[in-house]
Structure to design on (248 residues):
């Protein structure tokens, strides 16, 4: 696979969209805002209608955060499993919104719960994509101690996606926290090793390392801007591209 340069953004036929659980909050302090879910689904469904194969990995932080619970004294593995269950709720909400928007959708879980969704099987997931279905992947990797960023990278590699699109509440990767440092500078393109070396909080180090090993480009962008998810899925260059090293 040829990894695109900063001037040649990845135009993916098969893309993996990573949505944080917080993306579904809207202005609410907790839970799922149906209007936000419908907006995100409409944009993903529009890309699907263009012929782009769309896979989605969703987090659960709007309902339960395993790391936060572990820091308060809960057993880390137990807290992480609870977080995985929260992602299933979000995945079902997205499935409903996507199908209302006209995109046939399958939810696939890394933890078996056959009454409500399919088990994640790589070949079956790829077949769903080839048949024109959006695939929503939930329950992370099915293992504690791994974030949904890592799950998204793992799934992207497994299904042969061309790019990971991480939809966040910021418009890219910065050299410092833009909420704390008003002068922070946003990168348009940054290499994997620079993200790791500078401990930039775009996504966790395990996910970045896995992406680097498999030359999987990542685009970090602001999902709060109307149309950005559709633009990213269509391959327009928005936000920050994380890929091979930037030429000096």
């Amino acid at each position: 696979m040829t990894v695109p340069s900063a001037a040649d953004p990845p135009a993916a036929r098969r893309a993996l969209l990573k949505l944080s659980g917080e993306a579904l909050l809207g202005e609410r302090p907790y839970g799922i805002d149906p209007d936000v879910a419908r907006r995100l689904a409409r944009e993903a469904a529009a890309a699907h209608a263009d012929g782009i194969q769309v896979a989605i990995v969703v987090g659960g932080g709007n309902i339960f955060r395993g790391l936060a619970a572990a820091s308060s004294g809960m057993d880390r593995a137990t807290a992480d499993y609870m977080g995985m269950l929260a992602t299933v709720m979000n995945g079902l909400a997205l499935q409903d919104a996507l199908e209302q928007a006209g995109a046939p959708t399958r939810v696939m879980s890394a933890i078996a719960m056959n009454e409500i969704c399919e088990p994640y099987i790589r070949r079956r997931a790829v077949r769903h994509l080839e048949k024109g279905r959006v695939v929503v992947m939930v329950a992370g990797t099915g293992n504690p101690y791994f974030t949904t960023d890592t799950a998204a990278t793992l799934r992207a590699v497994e299904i042969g996606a061309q790019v990971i699109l991480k939809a966040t509440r910021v418009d890219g990767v910065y050299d410092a926290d833009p909420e704390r440092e008003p002068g922070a500078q946003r990168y348009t393109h940054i290499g994997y090793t620079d993200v790791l070396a500078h401990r930039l909080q775009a996504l966790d180090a395990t996910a970045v390392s896995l992406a680097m090993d498999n030359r999987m480009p990542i685009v970090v962008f602001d999902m709060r801007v109307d149309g950005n998810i559709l633009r990213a899925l269509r391959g327009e260059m928005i936000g920050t591209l994380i890929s091979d090293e930037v030429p000096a």
About this structure: The helical segments are 34-49, 66-71, 76-100, 122-130, 148-159, 192-197, 205-213, 228-234. The CA atoms of residues 192 and 209 lie 7 Å apart.
